[in-house]
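Quick one: structure tokens for this chain, please?
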Amino acid sequence: MADSTARNAFITKGGGPGKTAHGACRKGCGMATRDKAEKAEKAPQAEKAEKAPKAEKAGTAEKPEKAAVRRLRERGDVEKALEQSAPGEQERRPDSRRPKVWLIATTILAVLLGAFEWLVDTERVKLPGSPFGILPRVPLALFLIAAALVIERLAETFGVRQIPNRVSRYNLTRVLRLIVAVLILGIIGAVIFSNLYTGLVSLGVISLIVGLAVQTPMTSFIGWLYILVRAPYRVGDRIQIDGATGDVIEVSYLDTTLWEFGGKYLSTDHPSGRIIKFPNSKALSTTVYNYSWPLFPYIWNEIRFQIAYQSDLEFVERVMREVVEEELGSEMMKHVRVYRDLLARTPVDRLTVHEKPVVVFRVSDNTWIEAIVRYLVDPKRTGRVKTTLTKKLLARLNAAPDKVMFPKADNR
């Protein structure tokens, strides 16, 4: 009995500490597990924190291509060409402060000149005499010129540059600058001839004399007015005039600049890299072919293949139509339907405008049948679309040699 009691007591005592040690182990293991979980949660956060500065550095670091473009734009000749082809477009960017700084500087100058003119007018400041009494009128002339420049800059910054249409913005900028230039010349004439009316009249007489002396530039200036009013072409249009074909990138007061496509060294509608300048007087005496009529800015194009008389013409027609429809897509056809409805308001017969491709067959002079697919395309995408369609058409037609028989190499 004593041994049994002692053994029970030993088990009881031993069991107590055993349970306590097990509980301590559970607590320690739980704490270790929680530490691991916290570290696992903190690891992605630390990794993100390390990546954030790197991402910021990568974002702030300028890409080599953008840096090259920026350096190129800083060149004087490139900046001048950009300003000529799109006057004021660089200043229109939201991140540019140039127009506002220029406006503030011109306004301050106009205020200072106005104050100086007031001092001269109230005889608080006396100017020395000069031949013909021109010098006392100079402060007023300078103030009026500065005020005209301020008004012009205000109109451009807060008026013209807010117009979404780029062509209208371009034309209004040109007209506004011309008006200001004429006004400044009138002010200078008024200083010389003592009043504004006499100055403007004298400016008109001088312009008439100069116009007779330089007849061609004056005709080109009249041509610019004609282009502005009648719009035979606008900036961005693709035109052909007097053997020159290209996209209009500038219409200045005396001449027009084209970015040529095609040309002497190319057989496709790809830009040649050359620019073409011609006087605006050409628009008065030469036929202008405009590929970008606003009411219908598409042209018809064709792809033709020579096939044998034994070919399955119905199969050829179906395949050619399907390939072209798949490439041009339903969106293009929808746009064409919209423009066709616009054409209904003009003398153009809208029934001749089909939004789907048309396939026709003609007998060739060399004993073959010509299969021709005709489709509408954006004039600036003719080359790319034609290349893509040619590849796809050949792949589909060559897949059925029993139905489509092309001329063999030794029979061409």
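The beta strands are 238-241, 244-251, 255-261, 271-279, 288-290, 299-307, 358-363, 369-377.
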